[in-house]
Amino acid sequence: MQNPSWFLYGPGVAKIEDRAIPTIGDSHDVILRIAYVGVCGSDVHFWKHGGIRKVVSPERPLVMGHEASGTVHSVGPDVTSVKVGDRVAVEPGFPCRRCKACKDGVYNLCRQMRFAADPPDTHGALTKFYAAPEDFLYKIPDGVSLEGAVLVEPLAVAVHATRLGSVRPGQDVIVMGSETIGLMCGAVAKAFSANRIILVDIVEKKLEFAREHLKCETFFYDIKSTSEDNATGLLNAFDIADGVDAVIEASGAETSIQSGIHLLKLGGNFVQAGLGKPKIEVPIIDLSTKELHFHGCFRYSSGDYELALKLLSKRDISLRPLISSVTPFEQATTAWDKTGKGEGIKNLIQGVKD
Fold first, then answer.
1. Boundaries of each Enoyl reductase (ER) domain copy (predicted)?
2. Within a domain: residue 80?
3. Measured between alpha carbons, how far is 274 from 155 in angstroms, rounded to an integer?
């Protein structure tokens, strides 16, 4: 096979098939040799259900993978930012660059966004060779491995969420959920010099990892108690009288969202980074009478990837401890299953070997 690729045909059905090696279509295009691809929750949802809003089909299978790193294989004639052999992290969404959202600097909201592994026909990076425009590739700093570079994508999500929360030095921040994004939000808040960072989860093992890796405080969320009781219990446990400055909700769970609103001080910032049920109940009186700033959060936008890489290059954030396993390309479905079972923090799939 010249370009082996993992195609998803439907729930639980995926195959390695060959496809043509991509060619330079625009003078600023770059062809990459993929080194590693990360597995995230959306990959698991696709593997189990065939998609999220849009689904794949046997007639239109989709190449999986959007968290990726690789080396430059070839470049278009007008490419100046990278050269053959460079190691890069991939920002996997390519906007139109012309609409109002793009021109306003919020290209993540572009209606014409072509995001990797998005049905029906935007193929992903779980392949040998992958094409991307040069302005969405980022050279990896010295000291950052190709494995670690895969995590720049979720780190950029965390940077985006933390910036939306206006986290500043000296503030108290609570992160609801301590999966990959929650852990990274905690790490970014720490890099932003937050005074106190408390991670919340329903799994003690995850909280143990957070305490060890981030050196932060943690709180075990009791699913048998109400959202109000959990919020009161947390504030009392940490002697926080008036609430915290910012809550970053990274789980998407309804009760967690409710507790987050109860935890905030007057005028505090709430960022919804996690995805859950399409419709939930919200404590609207608390939200309104406290004049909370409630922010949606979608992927990443202008400056987020650059800042993520700066934090890595300055060693303000370490990602290596988050990598739990590396699975050979030929066994990619094993990595999806492992992540679906909650095994590990971040599982990677190695690129095709010669």
1. 12-349
2. yes
3. 14
